[in-house]
């Protein structure tokens, strides 16, 4: 158990500075953070796998290495794209042979805020913008669409991984304050940008239209034209808001919402409600 661990290492001589090759190796290993994800320790197995090359260089004493591996197998959960930020901070403390309770406390403090920051950067900002750009090519039947999405998304996440690894390691535990100083404002701004982009995507990509018409002699009333004259793209907006309500208020899963859309689309197309 964690409470039975020693609080200090036997060899307290600070280790040499880690070389860039080792730091870069851990960046690649960070891709496997969730390879042994479980509900007891979450990402702990992948976390230890990622930092192991550095721990082996820092702790030449086998007992110290075993002790470090043991406490680094404790519960760990953070944003998978920003994990190198935590790696750099923890390894800077391991290098100077800080006491184990301090290392554990810093590890927990560093991994916590990254969830909201990472979601704001990647899922609420980068993905909608990149998908919106790539979707235009895909809708025109171009293979460039999915390729462009994968290239942009992965280039950005790799740049972030490399930068955070080297930056946080050189800065040490003070990197936590530097990153989280304006985390609330940054997250709020990124979230607003993501919502703005989603709204633009609804207006540009939303194509659900009704096929109903009302007989009116030689000039039948097209319901969709009436709706567009009042509120263009009202139906795609309504569908989006309805799905948000189901997820946020009724705790529906994303899969359930996808199934609902499929059923509505198939039934609506069969009865002639949608174009």
How many angstroms does the end-to-end distance come to? 62 Å
Main sheet record = 2 strands, antiparallel
Strand order in the largest sheet: 1-2
Mean pLDDT: 85
Tally of individual domains: 2
Please report which band the strand proportion falls in: under 5%, 5-15%, 15-25%, 25-35%, 35-45% or over 45%.
under 5%
Helical fraction: 55-70%
Radius of gyration: 25 Å
Treating each run of at least 4 consecutive H or I residues as one helix, how many helices? 12
Q: What is the molecular shape?
A: elongated
Taking pLDDT < 50 over at least 5 consecutive residues as the criterion, the unreliable ranges are: none
Helix and strand pattern: HHHHHHHHHEEHHH
Structure in words:
With 275 residues, the protein is an all-alpha fold. It has two domains: 1-205, no CATH class; 209-271, no CATH class. Helix content is 68%, strand content 1%. It is built from twelve helices and two strands, in the order αααααααααββααα. It has a two-stranded antiparallel ribbon with strand order 1-2. Strand 1 (213-214) and strand 2 (221-222) form a beta hairpin. Helix 4 packs parallel to helix 7 (144-171). It is elongated and about 95 Å long. The model has no long low-confidence stretch (mean pLDDT 85).
